[in-house]
Design a protein that fits this description.
alpha/beta, Rossmann fold, 5-stranded parallel beta sheet, globular, CGA_synth-rel, CGA synthase-related protein
């Protein structure tokens, strides 16, 4: 999470970071602030994928001192957008995750974007001024030639505690054990609730066969590139990752209303295999043959350049005169 407490200048007011250079001097670096909710998988992945396309801009996740950034990308945190706008910083506000209802509001002075694949069926009722980005794909679209093991990408953001605990103690244990038996190694990456997950996975697999990581501390896209099998919660960041690489994907049981709504919408356009729960371990075996028919999607509906589009808007804001 970015720190939004800049110190005051001589007059107590933070200043923008792009002074006019003297004749013959090099052009100043344009600084952009990147803010996301790192405990929410979609928010974290959206920030990282846009950041990869910022090119010559100097990106930071913290703001300190008396110099304001030239522009900011804020993923989901409406309060951070409010504070930055009050300081005079132009903001691209990106809603990164799926919502089954109308999108929550964001300050009207911000450029408002929403991560939404063009092929995803409705209903979608955005507020005025909100523009869909298309798929926020990873900057590296290919996978490793030699791949092994399973990546299990789990989001417990917004999931009721009782539902999360029942999943961890039941289906999660079964699926991780099946992944180890079938592929020899399982990388489990989650956004929040890692204490609950760690307790549930205790005793599964031998040394080095199961590793649990916090999404904010690892490169999720790189782990996917190296994994043979991909199990993921029904969230947009995981869906975009598999679609961009035309990779196999199996959905974990959806947890919470937003995941259930997204899974139902995906079912209307695409067949994504489901990982079975306890008592049905034999019906799911980690395998690269469990492919998703990505080819059925109309390529005209999505060109996978959502992250580039958001980065372009951010670049334009940062270069605008203060």
């Amino acid at each position: 999470m970015a720190v939004l407490t800049p110190g005051g200048g001589p007059a107590g007011t933070p200043r923008r970071s792009t002074p006019v250079p003297p004749p013959g001097a090099a052009a100043p670096h344009h600084r952009v602030l990147l803010v996301s909710r790192d405990e929410e998988l979609d928010s974290l992945l959206a920030r990282r994928r846009v950041a990869a396309h910022l090119g010559e801009l100097t990106a930071t996740t913290e703001m300190s001192g008396d110099v304001l950034p030239d522009a900011a990308l804020v993923c989901d945190d409406a309060a951070a957008t409010d504070r930055l706008l009050e300081l005079g910083v132009p903001v691209v506000h990106l809603h990164s995750g799926h919502s089954g209802a109308e999108l929550p509001g964001a300050p009207g002075r911000a450029l408002r974007r929403v991560h939404r694949p063009g092929w995803l069926p409705g209903p979608w009722q955005p507020r005025s001024g909100v523009r869909a980005t298309g798929v926020l794909a990873p900057v590296r679209m290919v996978r490793e030639r030699v791949r092994s093991g399973t990546l299990l990408l789990l989001s417990l953001w917004g999931v009721p505690d009782g539902e999360a605990a029942a999943f961890a103690d039941g289906p999660l244990r079964t699926l991780v054990r099946a992944a180890v038996d079938g592929g020899g190694r399982c990388e489990v990456v989650g956004d929040t609730g890692l204490g609950l997950v760690r307790s549930a996975l205790d005793g599964i697999g031998g040394p080095g066969e199961v590793r649990l990581s916090r999404a904010a501390e690892v490169d999720v896209d790189a782990l996917h590139a190296a994994a043979e099998t991909f199990l993921a919660s029904p969230v947009l960041g995981a869906l975009a990752l598999a679609q961009a690489r035309s990779a196999p994907l199996a959905f974990l049981p959806p947890l919470g209303s937003a995941q259930r709504d997204l899974a139902a919408q995906v079912d209307r356009a695409l067949t994504v295999p489901r990982a079975a729960g306890p008592g049905h371990a034999s019906s799911w075996v980690p395998s690269s043959r469990k492919a998703v028919p990505w080819s059925v999607l109309d390529p005209a509906l999505d060109d996978l350049r959502g992250a580039q589009r958001v980065a372009r808007s951010l670049r334009q804001l940062s270069l605008a005169p203060p």
